[in-house]
What does this fold into?
Amino acid sequence: MANVILYTTNVCPWCHKAKEFFDENGIKYSEKNVQQNKEYQAELLEKSGQLGVPVITVGEEVVIGFNKERLKKMLGV
It folds into this structure.
């Protein structure tokens, strides 16, 4: 399965929904909190062109926002 990274902040409700989705479907992911780590902010800006969260990367593909249906297709769940 492709490497999944979730860019988050502490108070993002859609980030929490994304984490629940991954957990419910047994998807392993890495969480990068851009509020706590400035390096993650720069990485997020480079990958997505913006600083809004959630941003989810699946391999080389970037999903801006929590798009459940798109993620289901990408991850085969």
